Description:
Elements (H helix, E strand, L loop, with lengths): L1 H34 L2 H4 L5 H9 L2 H26 L2 H7 L4 H39 L6 H4 L5 E2 L5 E9 L2 E10 L4 E14 L4 E14 L2 E13 L18 H13 L11 E3 L2 E2 L3 H12 L4 H10 L11 H21 L1 H4 L3 H33 L1
Antiparallel strand pairs: 1-2, 2-3, 3-4, 4-5, 5-6, 7-8
Amino acid sequence: MKKLIFKKLTQDISLFFLVTILSISVIVWIIQAVNFLDLVSEDGHSIKVYFLFTIHSLPKIISKIFPFIFMVSLFYTILRYELNNELVIYWLNGVSKIDFINIIIKISLIYFIIQIIFTSLIVPFTLDKGRSFFRSSNIDLFSAVIKEKKFNDTVKNLTVFIETKNDNLLENIIIKERIDKNNSQLISAKTGEIISNETSKRIVLYNGKIINYENDKQNIIDFSEFSLDLNKFSTNTITHPKVQEMSSVNLISCLKLMIKNNLIYKIDSEKIFFIGCDSRISLVLIEEFLKRFITPFFIVLLSLCSSFIIFYNKNNNKFKILNVSLFLLGLIIIILSESSLNSAVTDIKKTLLYIFFPIFIFIIIYSFFYLKNRYLKRLDN
């Protein structure tokens, strides 16, 4: 009987969970994708780069809403069982309430493992993969990001001013290119045009001057035609890896090195072990570790909150109030699991508290369920 319960309950929860999380994820992804349109309109990336970057953000969206959707799925399924008198069938067939709760815990452990896989493996990989498209991207839509009578600094080390622009034809152009720390050049031209094809992206300028600044010295050159290659430039979009894009192997290795060198929690010390592993961001690294490996455990805690439903009959006058209270309690747990991360990384005591708090609460609630089940059994006897 227990195997049948486990199978049916798992199927019902999984079906509702999959339909709900896919639907909401797509909606959130579309909204987020609209916000990312600035990558094309302002940063000059191609539609292809924009699409590949946004599609790789989908796993992060799924992992973010995962606990909430799981809670809703579990809450909805158990509540439906109670309203349809299906739970009564289990009690009449000798399945105790603690047995039913144990089954729910086993199901939550499956979702806990899935969430761990998302947060520790899939999300960092896809975020880093999405960022890699920026690293290999050049100025595909330069013409689109250049605005009239405005200093445009979308391109790194290049500032462009255009008085008049008609498609790719330009008039009264001023371009400042920073070559290095001590060298730069200022280019002015009466007319110009942007030429872009599969092999070349450049601005061709006509009738102008180039003023070279080298170690506080000026050198002026007149030209009738000058071509500025755009392929050597990149946009100001952040392309270096972020902590959330670091692989879990590197994240754990970095924290081990910091612990070994007694640099954990010491943001005033500056030591870089490898790219992304910087003692100055040790608190951010600890927070990322907790987010990937500890926060998912709150899913198991959410399963116990939903399990309170089975101890109250639908004919109880306070049944609706209880359900609303339990749902709000679940929301509070989700909010606390996310909002308390920042304060949990300030010192070792708070970090340990964040780690053991859900385990402690789990033991208390499960002990309550166990004692409550024994009490009900004595009443039945």
